[in-house]
Amino acid sequence: MRKTDILIIGGGPAGLAAAVGAYEAGARDILILDREEHLGGILKQCIHNGFGLHTFQEELTGPEYAQRFIDQVQAYGIPYQTETMVIHVSADKVVTCVSRQNGLEHIQAKAIILCMGCRERPRGSLGTPGERCPGVFTAGTARSSPT
Fold first, then answer.
1. Which among 3, 22, 64, 84 counts the fewest CB atoms within 10 Å?
2. What is the DSSP string of 67-101?
């Protein structure tokens, strides 16, 4: 069984920022897992400007913003595994994941950071009747909202 101090599930903006933040706070045994082929999450699709003003003090597109974090992760040498699907997280912090490269794998972590993001789905594809939780919006919903 592999062991790591910090295991981050999700290689999108939150996961990348968490990895960089942990590294800058002194952690060195960090691993990022992501099910996609490339890091960056939903930002790869957000080609409009408006990202990065607070973090990098300049206006960036989604892919540019993601690339800044990817560059930091790579510069720090933080390991990551793409094309890896997490299928279970136990109460004692053992993560079970599967990938073509490593097969079925168990990773024991001292801390797990969940950064899986969200997926926008039309109401018709949801199996639960009713409305979204009050005050909880995906990025797409917030951008298209008239208020």
1. 3
2. HHHHHHHHHHT--EE-SEEEEEE-TTSEEEEEETT
Sheet containing strand 30-33, edge to edge, reads 80-81, 30-33, 2-9, 103-114, 94-99, 84-89
Single pTM value for the model: 0.80
Nearest to 66 by CA among 18, 16, 32, 115: 16
Q: Exposed, middle or buried, 112 (CB in 10 Å: 0-12/13-18/19+)?
A: middle
Domain ranges in the chain are 2-144
To which CATH superfamily is domain 2-144 assigned?
Answer: FAD/NAD(P)-binding domain (3.50.50.60)
CA gap 100, 64 in Å, rounded: 29
